Amino acid sequence: MSFFSSFSCRLSALCLVLGVAGNAVWGQIDADDLPELGDVASTDLSMQAEKKIGQEIMNEIRRDAAYLDDPEIEAYLNRLGNRLAAASPDAGIGFHFFPVNDPMINAFAMFGGYIGVNAGLVLAVRNESELAGVLAHEISHVTQRHLARGIARQKQISGVTLMAIAAAILAAHSNPDLASATMAGASAGAVQAQLGFSRDFEREADRIGFQILQKAGFDVRGMSSFFSRLQRATRVYENNAPVYLRTHPLSVERISDMQNRELNQPYRQAPDSLEFLLTRARLQAMRGTPDEAVTHFRALLAEQKTLHVAATRYGLAVALARKKDWAAAETTLNALRQDKIASPMIDRLYAESRVRRGDAAGGLAAFREALGRYPDAMALIYGYGEALLEKRMFAEAQTFLTQSLRRNTGDARLYKLQARAYAATGKMGLQHQALAEAYALEGALPAAIEQLELAQRAKDNDFYTNSSIDARLRQLKQKQAEAK
Ligand SMILES: [Zn+2]
Question: Rounded to the nearest whole angstrom, what is the distance from the C-alpha of residue 27 to the centroid of ligand 1?
């Protein structure tokens, strides 16, 4: 994949940014201030290797129960994360942020720019700048190559050792007793206990994270306010320190460093985005039983205890949808739309509620209308595709998904939906071909090759399909040979 081959040049670019051009790009960082931890680019582990390991671990995580498979929450985290990454010393590292269904406060950077964010963290922050502060710190661990440098420090690290570390992470996933925490904590703990984010790495991640936060336009006080609250909470729950603190040791010095940096900064207001508020409400609405969630949001609205009425009403609608009370969800969302609260998240749930309460025509029309407004909102695209499949409108689904794939060629979930649409009409060759593309995108080459071999054997292919299957199979087999 071209993605991988372009990494060697990105790596030298990274060296340039931090070394030669450091002062130009990072005017605020004094040359003396730069870490004496060694050259960022001189680690033994290439970014290409890091990406590969990260992708493999990510594939396992996607199959784990703790992975929160929610395209809207994932989209929000990626928009926030990439806004920060764009302000980082190496915006070229392709970052990927993903939500973890875990109430503990945690976020963790893995190899290759994969960053997990626990639901517990998003719910624990008081504003978006606080969340941005934690993500900026994690992004800095990645851009500064702390995992790779940690490995390099251990000397004599071979590919075998790396795979052993990856295996340890996976073992921790499948056996929750292994670690005191759940998946997220275990994976972060396994890597970081092995590599140890040292005090120097933490200081460096704080310093660079601060620059990122500032450059991206957030309130820089977000970092110290969240970390100092976390530290205070830790004093109370001595033996139950948040996982985050076990992997990122927090000291009094770290917090006072953060506060010192803030002293010279003018006050800047950074209001929370609507998406942040909706995402939080959505996560909150997923907690407890559906009834508990409905009661929670109804009480907030009745007591007028909520600062963000629109987000609270959206949370109520999500809770009602969990209860399958689609009519009530629709009414709640419609009221938000009347009030001109505009978001693809609101529109998606509104359209879905209409379809599910039995108004297929109205719901599908609402999907189309929303797609006209937000053509790039992936959750809307998935939602419309799923609604078409559910209503057995297979021809429309195939056309829509094929068109959507032209614009989003790298989307595995769309290929899986397309495979379902083909399967429903018995187009077996095309079904296996679509699944192959989904697996290839997820980096699962053997599974992709297997699907293409199944596609070759299907009896319903026309000449064009057959030759494209053959060509793709040759391509993937060559890629597999190269990887070996
Ligand atoms: Zn850290």
Answer: 23
